[in-house]
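To: structure desk
From: M.T.
Subject: fold request, one chain
Message: Could you run this one when you get a chance? Sequence is below, nothing fancy, just the single chain.
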Amino acid sequence: MSERRLPPVTQLGMTSLALIVAGGIYLSAHIPQHVPLAPAIVLLSASALLLAVNLAALSRVRDFAWARFFEIARWALLAYVLIAGMIEYTFVRNHLRGGPLVVLTLSLLVFAVHVPVLIGFTVARYAQADADAAATDAAAAQS
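Reply: Done. C-alpha cells follow.
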C-alpha cells in the first residue's frame, strides 16, 4: 500500500513555529531596555509567510478528511486562543507597550493558528477521506 503524497505541512509548520520562538527569545532578551525590532519583524514576517504557504498548500489537497480536520482543529484553535490570550494578558499586565507588544501579539496570533492546523492535519492525514467515509457509512447503512 503506497502512502499518498501530501504537502510538507508539518515541516513548514515546525519551521514557522521555530521562527516565532526565535523572535520571542530575541525580544525577551532585550526587554526592558530598548528593543531593536527589525530582527523580530523579519522573523515574524517569515513565519507568517510560511503560515500562508502552508494553508495554501493544505487547501489544495484533494481526497482529504476535511470534516475530521475541522472537527479537531476548531477545538485546538479554541484552546490555543485561550493560551495566547493568557500570554497576552501577562504582556499587558507587565506593562509591555509599543512595538514589542505589537510584534509579540502578532507572533501569538501565528502561534495560535499554526498549532491547531498542525494538530488537525496530523489527525486528518490518517483518517479516511470525506468521500470514502461517506461511501463506507452508506454501505454500512444498507447492510
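Reply (cont.): The first helix runs from residue 9 to 30. Let me know if you need anything else for the meeting.
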